[in-house]
Design brief:
Largest sheet: 6 strands, antiparallel, barrel
Distance between the termini: 29 Å
Number of strands: 18
Length: 346
Amino acid sequence: MIRIISALVLAMAVTLCSAVEQPLQLADNAPDRHIVVPGDTLWGISAQFLKEPWRWPEIWRMNREQIKNPNRIYPGDVIVLDRDASGNPLLRVQNAKLRPQIYSEQISQAIPPIPPNVIEPFLSAPLVVEVNGLDNAARIIATQQDRVFLGNGDLAYVDNADPAKQQWQVYRNGKPLLDPAYPDQNPSNPKYILGYEAFYLGTATQVKPGSPATFEILSAKQEIGRGDRLVPAVSPPLVAYIPHKPDFLIDGRIISIYGGVGSAGRGSIVSLNRGGKDGLEIGHILALERNRTVVERNEEDHKVNVQIPSERTGLLFVFRTFDRISYALVVQSEGTVDINDFVRTP
C-alpha cells in the first residue's frame, strides 16, 4: 500500500513538473504590440497574447512579489511582444508612450485585472456569509411604532451598533451552504456548513448612537424587521494581483451561483468551497471541470457506472476570499457552469 501511495505521489509530482516545463504557447494571431486603452483588463490583454492566459506572469518574467504587487499598466502604455536570447516569448512595456500629453494628464487609473463593474456588488454586498459571520453583528430589536416591516425612511432601534460607524447594510441569514466534498451532508452538523446564503435587505444610516441606537432605513430591497442584522458598509478594494494559477493542487467545488439559478456562464459570479485557509488568494485562476458518470451494461448484462474522464469547461478568476469560501468570476466557459462542478489547478 505504501509503495502504491508513493507511486501516486510521484506521478502527481511528475505531472505538475511537466505542466510547468511546457513552453509558453502564443495565442493564434498574437499581436506584436498592444496599445492599452480604457476598458482593458489584465486578463483580456493576456488572452490576446497567450493560449493559456493564466501564464501571464511567465511571459512577463515575474517573481512571486511582482505577481502580488505588479507594476501598474495605464491606458496609453504600449505592450510589446519580444523574444529573449533563447527565443522564448516575453512581454515588456515600451518606454515611449503613444499618447498625447493632454490625454495623458487625464489618465489616473491603472487597468484592473478583471472588469470592476461586474464584481463591484460583491465587494460591497456579499453573496454568502460565513458560519457565525452575523452572530455578533448589530441587531434590530425594535421598529418604529412596532411596525412588522420597515421601508424607506422608517426608523429601527439597533443593539450592539458601533457608534463610530454611520453607514450600514442590512442582512439576514438564508439557507446553509453545505460542503459537497462530504458525501453525507447534514444541515444540523456544523462541520459540513461552510456558510449561509446572504439575503441583502438594504441600507441604513445611524442617526443617533446609543443603546439601542436609532437607525433610518435608506433603502429596502426586501422587507426588513426585528432580528435582522446590520454590518458596517465597506468596499474592500480589488487588489491588483496579476492573473496566475496556484503553485499547488486545488480540488474544490462550486457551491452556489449568484441569482439563485442552477447554471451559469461567462460573466457569472460563483462561490467556491475553498478559501484563504486552503491557500486561495485574489488573482488565482482555476480550471472548471465536470466529472461524468454513464450507465453501461457489463457482460452479465448488469448495469454498471462508468466514470468518464473529467472535461475542462472553463476558467475562473478568484477576486475575493474568506476563510472557507471564495468568490470567483467565470472568465471562460464552454457550455454551462453548474453547482457541484469541480474547480482545480489548471
